[in-house]
Amino acid sequence: MKMIDTSGMSCPQPVLATKKAMEENPDGVSVMVDNTTARENVQRFMVKNGYQVTVEKVDEAFVLVAKK
Amino acid sequence: MKGSVVKNKIAIIVAGSVVGIFSVLLVFFGNPANMGFCIACFIRDIAGGMGLHRAEVVQYVRPEVLGLVLGSFILASKNKEFLSRGGSSPFTRLILSIIVMIGALVFLGCPLRMVLRIAGGDLNAVVGLVGFLSGIYVGILFLNKGFNLKRSYTLTHMEGYLFPFVNLVLLVILLAIPSILFFSESGPGASKAPIWISLMAGLIVGGLAQKSRLCTVGGARDTILFRDSHLLLGLAMILVFSFLGNLAFGNFNLGFEGQPIAHTDGLWNFLGMSLVGWGSVLLGGCPMRQLILSGEGNTDSVISVIGLFIGAAIAHNFGLASSAAGATLPGQIAVILSIVILLIISWGNSEFLRKSKS
Predict the structure, then answer these.
(1) pLDDT in the model for residue B6
(2) Active site residue A11
(3) What is the pLDDT of residues B251-302, one digit of tens each?
(4) How confident is the model at residue A11 (pLDDT cuts 50, 70, 90)?
(5) Which residues of chain A neighbour B215 with C-beta distances below 8 Å?
């Protein structure tokens, strides 16, 4: 599965990067975010586009896995 | 998981509603008309209160702004969301926010006040809104061409604590030794709600805005970019509740002429707010959001807030800011130059444009 890292990116870059990755890999992607605002935004975008989302906390960051 | 989405929705609705209601109440308690909250105007007033410009009618260290920063800091710390970070093209952000402030002072208000002006029946602000949306649209064109200011980095806690601390110091000075500050004796700077009311309103809204991520630019941006109207809902709530409040207090006057602290120069209302929309999209958030992020430890946003201060000082020291009579010639020249600078910054930081060139 395609994994992207959005650490350090500010709004709306994490969602833009997620959107691009999902267009290239419609089956699913995993996205690392390093703040709760980005986590909420990316999660909302994934859910809106019909994906099942699981969130895992890794150290100070979160990994969101989106599957169809 | 669905639950958190619903919770976030409630947070944004509550935040928008409270901002709308407080804005009307702050005017009732003494703030200038249609200016319960205005981040651009209030930062301009604080710049004046500290003597960075000498426009005597707009000098007052507004407790609302100090409250917004401290409220955000307190809630972010409590919820373990305080993150000290920065280093994402600081000087570019400084220039962008100077331009945002110049645009706001040519229009006479930040996006928040634009909404409050519309809610008060000021149709000039509708012209501003069209400009604002146009500016956001141009910014999005560049976002889609890969515009970004590169990543930020985690910094020491101390770096993030400094800005909230500075706000606390300014608050102590305002309360304990106000004689070293400048205070307007007439004009908008002399219209003010009692300090404690202003401060409480700022603290509460700061906390709610931190929790909900309320942003006036993000609403339109996300709707156009991702068909996501989450943040727009907050803006809609501000509009609805301040409109209802204005009706209740008899402060609703529909029209273009004779609106409080506003001018009828359509072209410059449009272009001024275009600068604000475009610049704010590049910065990643509106002036209010920059204040809130400053309280959360984001020093890129602190740099943006400093840019707003410098922009305010420039705007008043060089006669760029509009008055009720309309936009000034220096102001008009500054707007045109700012458009050119925004084009250069937008192009120069858009990765895909640069790649296709080389």
Answers:
(1) 87
(2) yes
(3) 999 999 999 999 999 999 999 999 999 999 999 999 999 999 999 999 999 9
(4) confident
(5) 11
Higher pLDDT, B3 or B196: B196
| Set A1, A3, A10, A11: catalytic member | A11
Enumerate the residues of chain A whose CB falls inside 8 A of the CB of residue B4. 40, 43
Match 């909900």 to its residue by tokens: B212
Angstrom CA distances, B59 to A43, B184, B189, B192, stand at 43, 5, 5, 11
At B337, which amino acid appears?
Answer: L
Which residues of A are less than 8 Å from B149 in CB distance? 10
List the structure tokens of B38: 């205005």
pLDDT band at B356 (very low <50, low <70, confident <90, very high): low
Count Cβ neighbours within 10 Å for each residue of B5-32 and write b for 16 or more, e otherwise.
Answer: eeebeebbebbbbbbbbbbbbbbeeebb
- Pairing, β A28-33 against β A2-5: parallel
Q: Where are the alpha helices (DSSP H) in B108-185?
A: 111-119, 124-144, 157-176
Give 3-state DSSP helix, strand, coil % of chain B, rounded to 5.
70, 5, 25
Partner A contacted by B145 (CB < 8 A): no
CB pair distance less than 8 Å for A8 and B285: no
CA distance B64 to B69: 9
Q: What is the pLDDT of residue B1?
A: 54
Report the SS3 class of residue A10.
coil
Distance of CA B87 to the CA centre of its chain: 22
Chain B 260-289, residues with CB within 8 Å of chain A CB atoms: 284-285
pLDDT averaged over every residue in chain B: 96
Cβ <8 Å between B152 and A10? yes
Chain B: give the shortest CA distance to residue A30, in Å: 16
Strands B85-86 and A52-58: unpaired
| C-alpha distances out from residue A31 to A8, A63, B82, B212, B290, Å | 13, 6, 22, 22, 25
Q: What are phi and psi of A55, to 5 degrees?
A: -115, 130
Q: How many residue pairs from chains A and B have C-beta atoms closer than 8 A?
A: 58
